[in-house]
Every structure is written in C-alpha cells, then in structure tokens.
Amino acid sequence: MRIDSLLAELPKQKQDSNKLKVLAGLSFAYRNSNPEEGLKYGEQALQLATKLDLKKEIAQANNNLGLNYQHMSDYPKALGYYFQALKTDEEIGYKKGSARVMGNIGIVYKIQGDYVKALDYFSRSLKIYESNEDKTGFANTQENIGNVYRLQGDYSKAIEAHSKAMDIYEKTGNKSGILITSVNIGTIYVKQRNYVMAIENFQNALQISEETGNKYQACVSLVNIGSTYISIVSDTARYSSPGLEIAAGKYKQAASKSNVVIPTGKTALLQKGIARLQDALAIANELRAQSAIKECYETLALAYRLMGNYKQSLEYSDKFRAIQDSLFSKENNEKIVKIEMKNEYDRQRMADSLKAAVKENIATMQLQRQRTYTLMSIAGLFLLLGFSFFIVKERSKSEKERKKSDDLLLNILPEEVANELKANGSTTAKHFDNVTVLFTDFVNFTSAGERLSPQQLIDELHTCFKAFDDITGKYGIEKIKTIGDAYLAVAGLPTADAKHAEHMVKAAMEINQFMLDRIAKVGNRTFEIRIGLHSGNVVAGIVGVKKFAYDIWGDTVNTAARIEQNSEAGKINISQTTYELVKGTFTCTYRGEIEAKNKGQLKMYYVS
Fold it and tell me: Are strands 528-543 and 572-575 parallel, antiparallel or unpaired?
C-alpha cells in the first residue's frame, strides 16, 4: 500500500527535498481515506517547502491542502489554498501546475453549482493543456466540461465535449477513459430518450469492463443496459410511436459487429432488461456491492410490475426496502443505531407491554377480590377499609403502568392508529387522497462520517432530527421514519388537512433555515441538506408483527424521493402537483422538465 510505504520512508529522510516528496505524497494519498491526516502532512510539506524556498513544491503543497479540504466539503478553504497554488504556479511560469489547479478550482465551482465559473476555469485549463499538447489533461478536462453542460441540461454541448475526450482516449488506448466516457455519453442519451444510442454506449462500457477484468464496472454497465430497456417500456409516449422500430432497424445495421439487437415488443424488451439486471445482480452479490444490489432490486420491481407480474414485483420491492435500510457500512449502522437504540428497544417491548398491562390488570383485580373476601370474613369492616386503601394504591400503580404503555405507543404511532390497535389488537391500512410527502437527505453524509468521530456523528444527527421533529410537530405533520440520514414525513394524515401542502412547505423552509443556521454555527461539523416535496395519494398502515412501524406506500412516495434526489444542497424542490397547491402562497422558480429515474421528465420548482 502506497501510504504504508511512504510512512515507512518518512523517518529515514532528512529535512531536504526527499522528505518533502514523501510528505507531499502522504498529503495527496490521504485525501480520500483520511483528509485530516492529509492536512497534517500537507502543512508539514508547506512549512518545509517554504523553508527550502522551493516555489514549485510550495504550490504543490497548497494544491494538496486544497484537495483535502475539498474532500472534507470545506469548499471556501479548498478554494483559498487552490488560489494560493495558482498564484505561485503563474509567478514561476509552471504551466502544467497552473492547468492542474485551474481544473481543481473548476471542480469545486461545479460542486457548488456555479457553472459559469466552473466552465471559465475548465476552459482556461483546457487551453494550457492544448498548447502543451498534453493529451491526457486535455481529455480529462473535456470530460469535466461535458459534465457541467450535462448538469446545465445542454446535452448537445455535453456530448460534443465527451466525444472530444473519447477521440483522444481511443487514440491513446486509454481504456479507463473510454469506459468512463461511454457511461457519461450513455447517461446523456437516456436523458434525451435516445435509448438506442444509450445502449450502444453502455454496451461499449461493458465490453471494456470485461476486457480489463473490472467486475464492478461490468455490473454497473449491465444495470445501465437493463434499466434502459425498462425505460423504453415505461416511456409509453416514445414506445407507442414508430420511432423506436425505425431506430432499432438503423441501430441493428450500425451495431452489427457487437451483435446487439433491440427488440420492439413490450414483453421482449422487458425480458431483455430483466436478463441484464439478473446478470448484474449476480455480480453485485459476488462483490457484495450493496448499492448495485439495491439498484437491481428497485429496477426489477418496476420491470415485473410493467410486465404484470405483481407477485415478483412485490418480492423485489420488499428486498429493495430491506437493503435500503442497510445501505450504510457496518460502522455507520453502529453509529446510527446508538441514536435510535432507545426507540428500537421501546418498539420491541411495546406489544408485550400492552399485553402485560391487560394481564396485570386482570390478575390484580382477581387478587384484590380474593383478598377482599378473605379479609371481610375475618376482620370485618375495619380491615375492609384498610384493604380498600391498598386497592386504590394498586390500581394507581396499574394506571401508571398503563399510561407508560400508552405514551410509548403514541411515541411511534399516530393517536388514531394507536387507539385502533388497543381496541382491536390490529389495524387496517387506509387510503389518503390529499397528502404531501417530504423527503430530506444530508449531502456528503459519508464524508462527514469520515471527518467526525462516531459520537460526534451521532450527536449531530440527533440534534438535527430532533429539530425536524419539533418543526413537523408544530404543523401537525406526521413523521414516518428516518432511513439512515434521510427523513420522511407526510402532511394530511391520519387527520385530513386542507392546507397539507402549505404546511409542509412552511415546515421545509424552517428545516432548511435550521440547517443553514447550524452550518453557520458549527461549520463542517454538520451537513448540507437536500429537500423534496410531492403531493398526491398514499396508503398508510402498520407493517410487520415484531418491531412494527407505521409506514406509507404508493407512487407519491416514490416520486417525492425522486424530487428530493434532483434537488440541490440548501434548496427545496417541489413537484408540479405541489406547486399547483401553493403557487398563490409561496414564490417558486420553475426549473423546467428534469429527468427523474424511472419517472421520465418531471416539472420541478424551487421554493424561494
């Protein structure tokens, strides 16, 4: 391992340029796995380079410090070090270093959503690489430019940039570059609903993956291919037109060397997609790639539903839900479970507590009756009065235990559902027509877990979710659950609320403001948040018999999740349906039609 070998070399070096190379290597190597360590060695490298007055190495140290801060999501500090590096590189005329740092600056601006500045720095970097005939740097920068255009929705320019990168990768035999670019181009074609070209590029990525023995990328490529076949069917407008048959005929001729054929019938398309997804699932299980397994389950559930095989669809939906709750690594699961340990323990005891309370009441009354009769026959009225006091005391104790059980029940179920459960011992699922679903998700949560201690992560999650609970409670919104770092709530059930959308938007705005205030207060010790809302109908009820929980289902929930996934940090993204309900109350900015996975083009708005 590179880090181990560098650490072994470090004590052997004197305070000279050789030690500087080792320190710089450690700072760069730690940027992904442990950026705090990367900062430590980066500072040492900067101090030594400054002492030795080595300008080129000073710039490199600043660049490495910027990389580590970037991986910690501290973008202002990352830019500060990048600009220091760029200044030094430009002073000494080190073109390669300037181009490298400009590219890093562009990446930060891209992450922050400042696409104008991102393109500016990528373009400046590109000119330097081109003038120096640095083909690799030129191609990599074209890839970055293509990604920015894709994010802007300018797909023609995106494909143009990626194609320029592809041309260089093919000429230089850079298979890794060909693979990544094929996936990027294929993804853009999916957004354009040009499924024929999408599959051609994903198939190219699959071929490279198999040639290089990259099983994980082969799995990803198979998922992309399978999902694209399913998208053809789910996109009914496209499928019902003759365009697909014509395109398939042209593609068959153009792709004859790869023996790829796109069928034109709905059943054949679904079977082809399912076959590719099953191939991907086999590899994902072999690699234990949880995210890929989840992707397969979700898309297979959709495929079988489109095929009309609802039993299979439900089986994969259940598997998808199960793995969604265990997406985090064992370490992160242990962190998160500490927060919810008490609630989980309470849930486990709830059913037993309810039964025990009833049994205790019966046993207590029987015991009291028996004692009363005995004492009446022996001691008369005086002892009866004394025992009556005991009965009152015992009843009071039983009432306290019952109240504890009731309070526990209300802590995890809506009052109406809890009362039904106590009265009947079971509940029935109900359909609700007018509700608004909220999804939130913390951005870069995994990287936060790397820079915070387990206890710090738990404490911060608890602080945030407690605030969310207080805010949603204020508006009569029902919290459903947390899924790792995601938060799910719904307004308009179990009690109808005519202003469900308005109340949910207000709650979302307060949640967003809380997180902005939290960031201002504690910096990168907390998280950025992404929020999505969608209105519609759902089915709600209790699932399971052990550790059971109140949950909601339906297309509205799935769409709300997609709306959240297409939001940005610090933004509240709402669907067209929600917009129609709140447009007279809140100022909203139309974003256009945006491709949502398995949903096609959806109109979306940001709440100002």
Answer: parallel
CA–CA distance, 270 with 499 (Å, rounded to integer): 41
**Choice between 351 and 137, residue whose per-residue pLDDT is larger:** 137
Average pLDDT over residues 233-256: 48
φ and ψ of 574, to 5 deg? -125, 155
**Residue 296, exposed/middle/buried by CB under 10 A (0-12, 13-18, 19+)?**
buried
Would you kindly state where each structural domain of the chain is located, as residue ranges? 205-287, 332-412, 430-607
Burial class (CB in 10 A: 0-12, 13-18, 19+), 413: buried
pLDDT at 427 exceeding the cut of 80: no
- Distance between CA 514 and CA 540 in Å, rounded? 29
Is residue 23 within a helix (H) or strand (E), and if so which, with residue range? helix 17-33
Could you please state the CATH topology (level 3) that the domain comprising 430-607 is classified under: Alpha-Beta Plaits (3.30.70)
Half-sphere exposure at residue 382, Cβ-oriented, CA atoms within 13 angstroms: 2
594, β-bridge pairs: 602
CB 313 within 8 A of CB 304: yes
Q: What are phi and psi of 591, to 5 degrees?
A: -100, -10
pLDDT at 480 over 90: no
Helix (H) or strand (E) holding 415: helix 415-424
Q: What percent of the chain has pLDDT over 90?
A: 45
pTM value > 0.90? no
